[in-house]
Amino acid sequence: MISQTLFEKLLELRLPAMRKALREQSADPQYAQLAFEERLLLLVELECTRRTESRVKRWVKMAEFSMQATVEDIDFAPERGLDRRFILELAQCQWVDKALNILVLGATGTGKSFLTCALGMAACRLGYTVRYVRTSRFLHTLARARQDGSYLNLLRSLTKTDVLIFDDWMRDPISLPSAQDLLEVFDDRFGKSATLIASQVPVAEWHSRFPDPTIADAILDRSVHNAHRVSIAGDSQRKLRGFRAMSHT
After folding, report:
1. Does 33 or 204 have the greater pLDDT score?
2. How far, in Å, CA of 155 to CA of 216, rounded?
3. Residue 244 has what pLDDT?
């Protein structure tokens, strides 16, 4: 019999998965046929798996994705124009290691947010920290941080984030102070961290939407020129889901 002291020590060492698995081994006589090293390896692997799953859950929660999305659930229907091989390659996150960017472009409702969240989830699974933001709300957060004195701390936390996702990029007008804040963010991250941008506005129109051409040049230089581009075609996914729902009523 395994002593209660051993179980208590495993609990004290914060090895709950190993403790649970050891109880299961002690209750199953088949494990007695395995060598000590084999049984120990099984226990260690279970504990490592549990810790990895816990870390991923924590990173996903911190990312604050707008929806649950995975690469496995992406619709690669021909009319959407998505290159399956390229998307699966992006899901390996080498672009994150190289501090590159991704621009996801397409009309309203084509699934840009889903794709960005799916790629963000892929990054979380591989151990990268991710933060998802809607651009207009994020700019309000930066403005408040300037007022309450937490601005520099926020910038530092953003710099340490491996993948920063901007959704609804350029959808709303941008004030001069907000443009200056964005430049601070991109300046800190350039060459160090990766950024993912989803926008329904064509890249050719981004420059004219900034209130200052010099700031526009600087932000685009740090966001566009070192970025992979993914364009999504086809009809609105919301519209298609609505038609499907109506057809079943």
Report:
1. 204
2. 20
3. 47
CA separation (Å) from 201 to 102, 172, 206, 231? 15, 10, 7, 11
Q: What is the DSSP string of the chain?
A: ---HHHHHHHHHTT-HHHHHHHHHHHH-GGGGGS-HHHHHHHHHHHHHHHHHHHHHHHHHHHHT-SS---GGG----GGG---HHHHHHHTTTHHHHTT-EEEEEESTTSSHHHHHHHHHHHHHHTT--EEEEEHHHHHHHHHHHHHHT-HHHHHHHHHH-SEEEEESTTSS---HHHHHHHHHHHHHHTTTSEEEEEESS-GGGHHHHSS-HHHHHHHHHHHTTTEEEEEE-SS-HHHHHHHHHHHT-
Amino acid identity of residue 99, one-letter, is A
Above 80 in pLDDT, residue 12?
Answer: no
Tell me the per-residue pLDDT of 135-185, one tens digit each, with 9 for 90 and over: 999 999 999 999 999 999 999 999 999 999 999 999 999 999 999 999 999
Q: How far apart are CA 38 and CA 220, in angstroms?
A: 55
Q: Where are the domains of the chain?
A: 4-60, 64-244
Against a cut of 0.70, is the pTM above it?
yes
Q: Identify the CATH homologous superfamily for domain 64-244.
A: P-loop containing nucleotide triphosphate hydrolases (3.40.50.300)
Q: What is the spatial order of strands in the sheet that 194-199 belongs to? A: 130-134, 163-167, 194-199, 101-106, 227-232
Question: How large is the average pLDDT for residues 225-248?
Answer: 70
**Which residues, 6+ apart, have CB-to-CB distance to 97 below 8 Å?**
none
Closest CA to 165 of 134, 141, 127: 134
